[in-house]
Specification:
Elements lengths: L13 E6 L6 H11 L11 E7 L6 E3 L3 E3 L3 E2 L8 E4 L11 H13 L2 E4 L3 H7 L7 E2 L6 H7 L4 E2 L5 E4 L2 E4 L3 H15 L1 H11 L18 H19 L7 H8 L3 H12 L3 H19 L4 H8 L4 H12 L3 H8 L14
Parallel strand pairs: 1-2, 1-6, 2-5, 6-7, 7-11, 8-9
Antiparallel strand pairs: 3-4, 10-11
Helix pairs in contact: 1-5, 5-6, 7-8, 7-9, 8-9, 10-11, 10-13
């Protein structure tokens, strides 16, 4: 696997540590490397400095399928990291080396953001970092995590969640969602969208969506076409008042039936989906334009600056003005975010 880090070790690069030890999943390592280990600065993406960190650098870390990863930094590098990522595990009860657990505990005490993908939650639980905190893992591992670590408050159904600056994600594709969310959180929506386009993946799935959706049948396939058309219409008319009843009528359904099919197809409710799209639209306008706040609120469909500010506070833990100051095209990104940690 490519051992280089994006950003070429630039002093202004956002420093990311991938914690490696025997048993980590090759898929999660690949996701982390694709998001933070590929240099996209020629497309105005941020500079990242991804390092593979392990107890020693002399021993390749074995992974399933005959793959191996050669660490390029020891655990002593972790105090320099802005973000620490723990991949999932092939065997979800794999014990992490004690030095890794100790280093993770010290990193959290320093206030460093830590994120675990899929079964990586078990590693954080071994370190005691999830005791008394909310966490998520793959839906098929929820009962196992509860049984082995009863001190953890396991959330049964979400894509990713945060508690005390510790992030956990559900299985496989949810790890991509979390990684892109962490980019968005530290560098803005446009940076996350640039990386998502490069990866040919969706740029925005909120962490509160369900982990999986119902399997389609021929009837729901027809419904899905109608729902897709409704979502496309809503995205073109975000600046207008939109109601569930109005969207349901456009789909030829009753509001109750529409809401049920929409949630089954997308993993979230129509109102929550609309709010997420309006937040994403406002973020892009704040990053790309110098429009006054009332006009940003109007174009994103919030109606008023007060309403937009309330939603930014409740969902992003920041204000529109602070967001613009940090992420607008003319601002310098220093690798930190105004969003509360």
């Amino acid at each position: 696997m490519d051992q280089g880090g994006a950003g070429g070790g630039r002093q202004d690069a956002y420093r990311v540590a991938l914690v490696a030890f025997p048993g980590i999943r090759a898929f999660d390592v690949s996701v982390i490397t694709e998001v933070w280990g590929t240099d996209r600065t020629d497309r105005d993406a941020p500079a990242f400095d991804l390092r593979r960190v392990a107890p020693d650098t002399a021993t390749p870390v074995p992974m399933r399928g005959g793959l191996s990863l050669l660490p390029d930094r020891t655990l002593s590098w972790l105090p320099r990291a802005d973000l620490i990522l723990v991949p999932g595990l092939d065997d979800h009860v794999t014990p992490a080396p004690p030095p890794v657990l100790q280093a993770l505990r010290r990193a959290h005490a320093r206030g460093t953001t830590i994120a675990a993908l899929c079964g990586g939650a078990f590693t954080l639980a071994q370190a005691g970092l999830l005791d008394g905190r909310r966490a998520i893992t793959h839906w098929n591992l929820v009962d196992l995590l509860r049984a082995r670590h009863p001190e953890v408050t396991v959330v049964p159904d979400a894509l990713f969640i945060e508690d005390d600056n510790i992030w956990t994600a559900a299985g496989t594709a949810a790890g991509i969602d979390l990684c892109l969310h962490l980019v968005r959180r530290s560098h803005g929506a446009e940076a996350a969208a640039t990386i998502a386009r490069s990866m040919v993946t969706a740029p925005f799935r909120t962490g509160t969506q369900a982990q999986f959706i119902e399997h389609a049948t021929p009837h729901t396939d027809r419904d899905a076409d109608a729902l897709a058309a409704v979502r496309e219409h809503a995205l073109r008319h975000l600046h207008e008042p939109l109601t569930v009843a109005g969207l349901a009528a456009r789909a030829g359904m009753s509001p109750r039936t529409f809401a049920r099919h929409f949630t089954a197809a997308t993993g979230t409710t129509p109102l929550r989906w609309l709010l997420d799209q309006r937040l994403a639209a406002a973020q892009k306008l704040l990053e790309r334009t110098d429009l006054p706040m009332p006009e940003v609120a109007r174009r994103a469909g919030f109606g008023s600056e007060v309403t937009m500010r309330q939603h930014f506070a409740s969902r992003l833990a920041t204000s529109p003005r602070a967001y613009r100051a940090a992420f607008s095209a003319g601002s310098a990104i220093a690798g930190s975010s105004p969003i509360a940690r």
